[in-house]
Each structure stands twice: as structure tokens, then as C-alpha cells.
Automatic annotation (TrEMBL):
It holds the Pfam family Bac_globin. It comes from Flavobacterium saliperosum S13. InterPro entries: Globin-like_sf (IPR009050), Globin/Proto (IPR012292), Hemoglobin_trunc (IPR001486). Keywords: Heme, Iron, Metal-binding, Transport. Gene3D superfamilies: Globins. This is Hemoglobin. Coiled coil: none annotated.
Length: 128
């Protein structure tokens, strides 16, 4: 099995992951409701995000947190997202960049969950 090396690998990783997410009984409805018919646009954004994060190709600008801030999600949703993400990577890739993808996804899920809980508990809306 090879490591994540280029844009084609990023596209494969992202497409296969979100195909699983869309069909997942637990988190699929949340993603499908939020994204609706804009999947192509979302996937393009994710290609750029992961290229920037993993391959040091500056293909994404923006803040990934605000679109998630108002979603009806909690730690169990992030846990399921990570379960699907990790399994998806492990099925297709092996190496330091694949490991980095899993590590960064875990840190992002942890941070997003923390921020969402913080704003809920403070009864405040996050800055967008």
C-alpha cells in the first residue's frame, strides 16, 4: 500500500470518505441536510483543504470551523466521523502522510467539538 502523495490521492481519499459519510445512518443525514446538492463544491473545497494540510500546496484559504458551528452535533458525531475517516485511510494508504492525515483529523475533531461545546455552554454564538 502506498502513502498519500499527490492531488489524485487526496481526491481518492476525500471522495471515498464522503461516499461513506453520505450513506452512514448516524452522520449522513446531518451532512446531506447541510450540503444538499452542493456536494461537488464541498468536495472541491475538501481537496484544497487536505492538499494544503498534507502536501503543503496552498490550495485552501478560509476558516474550516464556522460552517460546523451551528450543526446539531456532539462528541458522538465526531467519534463516528473519526471512525469512518480512520478506516477509510487505513483501507487505502499507509505511511507518514496517511498517519499525519489521521492525526490532524483527530485534532480537528477534538478542537471543533471543544469549541462547539464551549459556545453552547456559554450560550453564545461563535464568530463567523
Amino acid at each position: 500500500m502506498q502513502d498519500i502523495q499527490n492531488r489524485d490521492d487526496i481526491e481518492q481519499m476525500v471522495n471515498s470518505f464522503y461516499a461513506k459519510v453520505q450513506k452512514d445512518e448516524f452522520i449522513g443525514p446531518i451532512f446531506n441536510e447541510k450540503i444538499q446538492d452542493r456536494w461537488e463544491m464541498h468536495l472541491e473545497k475538501m481537496y484544497g483543504f487536505w492538499q494544503t494540510v498534507l502536501l503543503d500546496v496552498h490550495a485552501y484559504s478560509g476558516s474550516p470551523f464556522p460552517p460546523h458551528a451551528q450543526l446539531p452535533i456532539n462528541k458522538e458525531h465526531f467519534d463516528r466521523w473519526m471512525e469512518i475517516f480512520t478506516k477509510n485511510i487505513d483501507e487505502q494508504f499507509a505511511g507518514p502522510i496517511a498517519d499525519e492525515a489521521k492525526w490532524r483529523a483527530g485534532k480537528m475533531a477534538e478542537m471543533f467539538n471543544y469549541k462547539i461545546e464551549y459556545f453552547r455552554n456559554a450560550n453564545q454564538k461563535p464568530l463567523t
